[in-house]
Amino acid sequence: MLSVRDAHARVIAAFEALPAEMVSIADAAGRVLAAPATARLTQPPADLSAMDGYAVRAADVPSTPGTLTLVGQAPAGGSYDHVLKAGETVRIFTGGPLPQGADAVVIQEDTKADGTQITILDAPRQGRHIRKAGLDFKVGDQALKAGRTLSTRDVALAAAMNLPWLSVHRKPRVAILSTGDELVMPGEPVGRNQIISSSGIAVAALVRGWGGEPTLFDIARDDAALIESRIAAGAQHDLLITLGGASVGDHDLVQAALKAQGFSMDFWRIAMRPGKPLMFAAKDRARVLGLPGNPVSTMICALLFLKPAIERMLAQPGDLVATQPARLAVDLKQNDQREDYVRSTLSRAADGALTVAPHPVQDSSMLSVLANASGLLVRPAHDPARTKGETVQIVDLASLPGGY
Hints:
The chain is an alpha/beta fold.
């Protein structure tokens, strides 16, 4: 069986960045920049006041108190369009442009006004309370680099840079196909020997959260011709996800349907738990990732293989999910030949250390355990027995993007 890392490497090697498209700045949050965002103006465009007060020449008030003559004002959106002369001051407000000749601002609390006579009570320092031109960014600055996933803060910055449109990578279009006579959708009548199909809905939510556009097909019954037609439709997308039917039993029809349409099987078993029956196939530019049917296996395999594939299509590295150290809260027996992703609870010990306690039942059908887990304990293949207090590697589920 293929290792998780070898399978991951094969999957991400099959994908490349999707073409760019232009989107409105209002729709850019969460998208991945395909080209740098370059400022079209300088911000601030001139030296501005950072406070309400008076614009002065610092040399005019070497000591306090000192009195200056008020000759005008510079509100935000307005200006004093004369050179400030010796002994003069201008009333200025936050965001107002500094008059030519002024080199400091005295806040209004440090002044006393008597008509046009303004007494300065605190000696100004050159540059005090001034936002210099270009303090934030200058025209031509590439403040946001290509490959960046845009946050709301980034969108605010791009808007301030006077960018109404941004070049971003097209969202990966991902088709999702669940197969099996035993499946029904939530809310439908559940017959004898039938179960609710939850994996497709979960994968669609993950695709959306990770930056793709999901298309959730109707459940395909165990009919070879029907499955072939759905595969043909799904192959028109950037990626087709199949759920179930990827093993080698008599009723597992997905592999046969793929082979009938000319797809080549890269692999169909990996050494991990949960998720051994994972499949990857290709035909020309079409890619198919076959996830296990059990919902917990689906979710964990999606994290390890689907998320990196989507990231690659968005011009990102597509690395395996990151792990971090934690202290084991219980003893563990030796692991077998499969890398294990153990649903666990993370907590903080009295000394502040992160600890991990595996859930006592790890059945891959138990969504309640995964939903209530705060972490995954990652045990390598053939990991020896571990004792309470040892350092192990975990995935912190709360830190994952996309609402996992």
